[in-house]
Amino acid sequence: MKKILLTVCTSLFVFLFASANNADLFTYDVEAVDQELAQLQSLEDYVCVNPGVTLTDMQSENNGLLAGMNLNMNTGGFSFLSGEPPLGIPSFLWGCVLSWVGILVVYLVTDNDREETKKALMGCLVNAAAIIIWEVIWIVALGNGLWLY
Amino acid sequence: MKKILLLPIFILFSVQIGAQNFYRISGDYTIKGKSETSAQLVIGKFYYDKNEKKIIHSNSFPEKAIWVTSDTNLFKVVNNKIEFRQTIPNFTQFSMYHLVLNNQLNNFGLDGTIFTLDKVEEQNGLVITTWIPPKHMKKIVGRILISSKDDNLYGVIFFDAEDKIIKKQFFEDYSVTSGLAFPGQITEITYAPENREIYQVTTYRNILVNSHHEEQLYHFNISDFQ
Fold first, then answer.
1. Is residue A7 classed as helix, strand or coil in its secondary structure?
2. For chain A, which ranges sit under pLDDT 70?
3. Which residue from A78, A117, A133, B74 lies 20 to 30 Å from A32 (Cα-Cα)?
4. Which domains does chain B have, with CATH numbers?
5. Which positions in chain B touch A98 (Cβ < 8 Å)?
6. Is the Cβ of A102 closer than 8 Å to some Cβ of chain B?
7. Burial, B221: exposed, middle or buried (Cβ in 10 Å; 0-12, 13-18, 19+)?
8. CA nearest B135 in A: which residue?
9. Given an 8 Å threshold on Cβ–Cβ distance, is B87 in contact with A97?
């Protein structure tokens, strides 16, 4: 009887603990993010009050706001994760613009074993999302994208 | 008698609101991103019409360029010339803009995909849903947690196959334009190898819904450019 009670209590505790964890995961350090992006915020403010200014303009006038920032000039050829943009798609389109498919594709392309990925995805060509992921893996496997230009 | 007359008007009005067709969205956006080694600031406007199925990003910073995602093509137009063209998978229907217009942002477009809904729970004012990949993909990708607050998408957490968090996204500061809710800020935290954290914040302003202002940008006929 004691054992049953102990098992039930333990299970309940584990269930409650696991459940509580999920809500706790939906937090982030707002101050850390703000602090990390403070210099970019100053730059954004400058661009907003000087509409039409480009990075080239600012570089040519040695604008102090760019000091020590290593700001990327080329929107299309840049990725924080891999150095090169996955499939040649600019980094600003991944993530929130391309929703979960974009995030998954970046993860699969940059972090996973492509052969294993390819095999596992063979059986999931059942809907558009899977087809997209499959297309991506296929393109990557064929050789880092189909560059037309 | 007045009440009887008002009733059909009220019903018609309610039906009209319920059946409101959101087909087009545009706005200003800014992306700020930073890792240990580099930074990025992108400022521009976006345009999307779900009937056209083209996503247009007209950037003014760091360079003046228009990026057009159309079907399986990605174009970059600079000074009225196509500078770059790339074949890509057709992502348009999974774009955030498409999900918002189709009222599918709450589940981040996961409904009806390879992921299945495993669990729904309510904690600390959040409705949290757990989505799991099919069995044969569990070695590659992990679960996805989605939370909503006040009927709006709040957070998305992506896990790898070992149940480690690879990315968090937070959708905040919603504004309602013509009855359509759109997040004003999206914060992304990517957990890269070697315990690196990469931050990216996208802010949206001046959202327009079903607008006919700058009509040509929603259609953006790429054949007009060489």
1. helix
2. 1-20, 74-88, 91-92, 94-97, 108-149
3. A78
4. 21-224 (2.50.20.10)
5. 91, 94-96
6. yes
7. exposed
8. A120
9. no
